[in-house]
Amino acid sequence: MFYFTVNNPQDPLSTEIVETNRRDLAFWHRLRPKDDDDLATAINKICVRTGLSRKLIAACLFSICFLPYLPNFHKLVEKLGHLDMARINAITKAGEKVPSEKRELFDAYLVDYLTPRAEAQCLPQASSISAMMRKFIAQHCPDDKASSATNDGSIRYRRNNKGGISITVDATASEVTEIKAALEQMSKDKDCTPGTSLLHIIRGLPTKVVLNTYGTKDSPEYLEGGTWLSKEQSEFWKTRTTSSRDMDAAHFSYTTAYAPTREMRVYIKGLRTTCSVPGCSVAVENCQLDHIIPWGEGGPTTPWNIHPLCVFHHIQKTEGRLQCYPLPDGTVLFLVDGIPVFSIPDGPLSKSNKTWGTKFGKYMERRIAA
Fold first, then answer.
1. Residue pLDDT, tens place only, 108-151
2. HNH domain location, by residue (predicted)?
3. Would you say residue 357 lies in a domain?
4. Which end of the chain is less congested by CB atoms within 10 angstroms, N or C?
């Protein structure tokens, strides 16, 4: 039987959290104001009696009102009881941007994404769920203004108390990735701080920035740094593609050296969006690449034996306080308090997300086998 770890029927703590999730959902159903009640007054009544923030109250009430428009997802939530209000709120916040004619598709997408595919599968964090919601909006709601590849934007400056300035830039997610990459590359080129890097760029010093997209050469779908591309953004980024490589072949690559090759790094970081430890939401670009079976103990330098770990969990594993084992498809089995938890890849090269250049029959075989 497939289930998320929070639905483990043999674990009393899991049973308790499911009951808590269901009680919370019922709690907010009971607190839903009448349609003709004054909004501000209704929120104030809940705020003073619960101590919860007005923002959280408004989000939970919106979720209760929006869930009926996603009937199949609503049934799944009630059946499994696996989602807390933070996750539900992340979903309904994204759903607000989905046009009414796309809600049925969005509903099916949610059910597919949040139905377990393995025994003891790790439940996605709210941040990972939000990323998948952005993927849906980018690919199916191209008119959404937030996903535009180009905009006029603005830059705001603020003097800080040390005589410097803070700069806030209105930019899309892909533009933020490009700006960050340029600053980091200049820092490496000139061995300087990001602030000095910005000054070098303003002064016109050149630097070469390499960013990876995942997809086909004619249809990139994902930009490294955590951005699922809209159709408009895909058109923009394909004009900047200078080379391509077969990532399927990278899955079987191997080196006798300790450090993975550049191709391996690109592949491994394409399998996941966060640290592979269940429940950790540190972005993959901020993680270190770890040999699951230690290199010093004969662990090979090959993608199936390497996964991203944030610094905190990398230290934990090195100290022997975190146990994990590799599986051939990139899934990692963790033992947490003696309980097995499967951390399944969710990145652009994972089984569930890698659909470009794939034949229908092969894709269905892979999904069924998963």
1. 999 999 999 888 999 998 888 888 888 888 888 866 444 444 44
2. 285-311
3. no
4. N
Domain boundary among 244, 274, 298: 244
Q: Taking the model in full, what pTM does it have? A: 0.72
- Can you read off the two tokens belonging to residue 162? 């040390």
Residue 40 to residue 48: CA distance in whole angstroms: 12
> Does 360 map to a domain?
no
Q: What is the DSSP string of 25-82?
A: HHHHHHHPPPTTS-HHHHHHHHHHHH---HHHHHHHHHHHHHGGGSHHHHHHHHHH--
* Rounded Cα–Cα distance for residues 139 and 31 (Å): 35
Which residue range forms the structural domain that includes residue 270?
247-343
239, 153: one domain? yes
For residues 166 and 228, membership in a common domain is answered with yes
Domain boundary among 210, 244, 278: 244
Read off the pLDDT of residues 159-203 as tens digits, 9 standing for 90 and up.
666 656 677 777 777 788 888 888 888 988 999 887 888 889 889
Distance CA 138, CA 132 (A): 10
